[in-house]
Write a structure and sequence with these properties.
Helix content: 40-55%
Radius of gyration: 27 Å
Strand order of the largest sheet: 9-4-11-10
Strand content: 15-25%
Number of domains: 3
Length: 447
Amino acid sequence: MKSIIKTVLLSTGLIMFMPALLKAQDNGVVVDKIIAKVDNYIVLKSDLETTYLNYLANGNPATPDAKCRILAQLISQKLMVAKAEIDSVIVTDAEVDNNLDRRMQMILSQYGGSEAQLEEYYGKTVEEFQADIRDQIKEQLVVQRMQETITSGIKVTPAEVKKFFNSIPQDSLPYFSTEVEVAQIVKVPTIGKDQISAAKKKLNDIRARVIAGESFEALAKEYSQDPGSAKYGGNLGFAKRGVMAPEFEAAALKLKPNEISSPFETQFGVHIVQLLERRGNEYNSRHILLMAEPSESDMKEAENFLDSLKTQIQADSITFEKAAKEHSDDSYTAGNGGFFMDDLGGTRVSVEDLDPVVFFTLDSMQVGQISKPIKFRTDGGKEAVRILYYKSKIKPHQANLSDDWQKIQAAALNQKKSKALNDWFNKAREDVFISIDDAYDYCGIMN
């Protein structure tokens, strides 16, 4: 069933791609060509090869028909865009711009927020890069809108889920590893005034060194505790208003170009920021971040809070789920009642996907137990304390309706949506001109 689920997900999912950087031969001739046309829209060989490489990089098998299925999906996406014009399915410029802004922030974060690093890597300006991907993003949004339109209202009944499951050969049913339901309540200690004051004093000393002539970038590389920007000298690149923490933005925008702020606090720690340039609604800055560490008494206060909460839960004064929603400092799990979630939004998680620290903690617990407060470091690098609730454990097993209903239901729904999209494709292709390079006849896409 795993292979069936992957096939269904591939056929219903939206292929996300970045602009391919075409390779040139030694003689300078670009190796690329059009391999499919759908009305005025084209699929390049580089589109197919880049998407196929991404498919393999995600751990998918290099099956004989994988490239054909990807080509079919690329053609289907072009068909959706062509049909969207005919059917007047519209994506507004505002939607495209908002998505582009979010995408650019995500891309820039991979380069420490540095536009210079991105420009060096791609060999083009940020404006040129944005122009390259804007049309792709608009196309992706149009395809997504069309898919939503085509599959809206599709649901599966319990009878359909059972029929789907029964259609899978017994020897094709996957064997799932141990799964657990585990929840957490996290308490990040309130940092004492002494620790905040010490961090501010250190940053004031660093600020004075910069004003005296030392390099801000060199000091950021040495002292900043922001893992994303420290290696780039604290450079964050251009950001629009509303992107950074409010306190950070307020401090940066009070400055004149090249001026350095006094130390200030955000949820991430204590900063100094230097404004480099303002450009309309955007500003370019760099910073040095220190994350003040909690004292032993700060940590003890957090432990005592969780101990008290654990006592209330065990006395049935409050459920673990409600306590997590009201008191946990972890935004990712608090809304789920503290539970870790799988990719489908279920609370049963494979032990293979658990954080190793959580896994080994559960190994010493019994189902139904709540752990004592445990010190750990959050993904953001902060010292914190948590309690874990070990709700249930499902032993390794072959897929069955009783234990795996949610997974099977999702696969059945995806298969039904896939059929709707395939039916739509077979009907819609009569309304447009489609041409596919003879080299891909073996795929049988138009059969």
